[in-house]
Design a protein that fits this description.
- This protein is α/β, with parallel strands linked by helices and about 375 residues long.
- The protein folds into 2 domains: about 5-95, Phosphohistidine domain (Glucose Oxidase, domain 1, 3-Layer(bba) Sandwich), CATH 3.50.30.10; about 100-365, Aldolase class I (TIM Barrel, Alpha-Beta Barrel), CATH 3.20.20.
- About 25% of the residues lie in helices and about 20% in strands.
- The chain is built from 10 helices and 17 strands.
- The protein has helices at about 55-60, 130-140, 155-170, 185-195, 210-220, 225-235, 255-265, 285, 290, 300-310, and strands at about 5, 5-10, 15-20, 30-35, 50, 65-70, 80-85, 90-95, 100-105, 145-150, 175-180, 200-205, 240-245, 270-275, 315-320, 345, 360.
- The strands form 3 sheets. Strands 1-8-7-3-4-5-6-2 form an 8-stranded mixed sheet, covered by helices on one side. Strands 9-10-11-12-13-14-15 form a 7-stranded parallel sheet, covered by helices on one side. It has a two-stranded antiparallel ribbon with strand order 16-17.
- The longest helix is centred in the middle third of the chain and has 14 residues, at about 225-235.
- It is globular.
Length: about 375
């Protein structure tokens, strides 16, 4: 998530609040952080904190929690922030002007994928109560919201609680749960999800191969392939909207046409298939020599896989790859999928004729990037 440095006053514990530039009734201000210039002297009574562009004796004197930043242009009405005074950090938990908002359900996971950008961590406390409050503050909500991890299904019924909160506070938001699918092989658990009747819910399941040996090697768990396949069929049994995601790496790219055939032959119920470029951070960076492949080297296999599925009326997309590494027939499948806060463009991109249509690069791509980056003409 996007972060800013700050200095705090009159604040000893972390605060979460929704950004406003004013106009909130006094009895509704406790969830809001007021953004004002340091020279202003507004009625700030009841606000959770004020965010200013400098120290203000006015707020100091009134003992109002104050957050000082370098300029106020980073904030939009409705953003949700967490301010940590001990580290002097503002974290953007939700941004109204982005399409890539997500809620971290847990950092726990029952896989150890070789290319995981966010390595699993043990958690001693549940995030659910915090996340329920976050969902409430988001109302009326974004167009899309991802529930991610770790592995979200590991929190059990607490995931159902989060989805109920989404139904209540964000009824017009399309929610996507990112999962490895293993826990979803439990029919009773999947049935519990289905009983929610969430009409805007998609389950996106990661599947990295068409054979068990290779998938299990990539995720680091023997038997995971079988769990995931059973999870996918259980989801289909209960009528879920299902997306299948395939991360592209050196271990599986040669099998892309076979993976496409496997998906069409065995999972025609999939509403969408996404082939995803790798983010070279976390475990991917640690295992770089084992998992890295230049996207230019798998362009033929990727083109064949996308064409195969498209011809058979299965919607398919390519995520996280710049247009220049894709042959022209593949570019129609490319999507701008990298979250804005970690999305960059390279110097050579500045003269590219299709930059506005290109998804660019992960900020972490400096670790290793394609040797075939070049500007494209109009």
């Amino acid at each position: 998530m996007r972060c800013l440095n700050c200095q705090t006053s009159n604040m000893t514990v972390a605060l979460i609040g929704k950004v406003t530039y004013g106009g909130i009734p006094t009895n509704q201000r406790s969830d809001y952080m007021l953004v004002v210039r340091a020279s202003d002297k507004p009625d700030a009574k009841g606000y959770r904190a004020v965010i200013t562009d400098g120290d203000s004796p006015y707020f100091q004197k009134r003992r109002i929690p104050m957050v000082c930043v370098d300029g106020l242009t980073s904030f939009s009405e409705g953003d949700i922030l967490s301010v940590e005074p001990t580290t002097g950090t503002i974290m953007f938990l939700y941004e109204v002007n982005t399409l890539s908002n997500a809620i971290l359900v847990t950092e726990e996971c029952n896989c150890a994928c070789l290319m995981c950008p966010q390595p699993p961590k043990h958690e001693s406390e549940s995030r659910t109560q915090f996340n329920c409050k976050l969902i409430r503050l988001m109302a009326p909500g974004p167009k899309e919201l991802a529930l991610t991890g770790g592995e979200p299904t590991l929190v059990g019924d607490q995931l159902l609680t989060l989805l109920r909160e989404c139904q209540k506070w964000l009824p017009d938001t399309n929610v996507i749960v990112l999962s490895n699918g293993r826990r979803l092989s439990d029919r009773r658990y999947a049935e519990g999800l289905a009983r929610l009747g969430h009409s805007r819910l998609t389950i996106a399941v990661a599947l990295y191969a068409d054979v068990d040996r290779l998938h299990d090697e990539i995720v680091g768990v023997k038997g995971a392939f079988g769990d995931t396949i059973r999870g996918l069929y259980t989801l289909a049994l209960y009528g879920f909207v299902i997306e299948i995601r395939v991360v592209l790496l050196s271990l599986n790219y040669r099998r892309l046409p076979k993976i496409a055939d496997f998906l069409y032959s065995n999972m025609p119920f999939a509403s969408h298939v996404a082939f995803m470029g790798m983010e070279t951070t976390g475990l991917a960076e640690k295992n770089l020599e084992r998992v890295w492949v230049d996207p230019f080297d798998y362009r033929q296999q990727l083109e064949e896989a996308c064409g195969y599925l498209s011809q058979r009326m299965i919607p398919v997309s390519v995520y996280n790859l710049p247009l220049c590494v894709l042959p022209p027939p593949l570019r129609r499948f490319a999507r701008k999928s990298i979250s804005e806060w970690k999305n960059i463009y390279l110097p050579e991109c500045q003269v590219c004729g299709v930059k506005t249509k290109c998804g660019g690069f992960f900020e972490s791509s400096g670790v290793r990037r394609s040797a075939y980056i070049f500007p494209i003409g109009d």
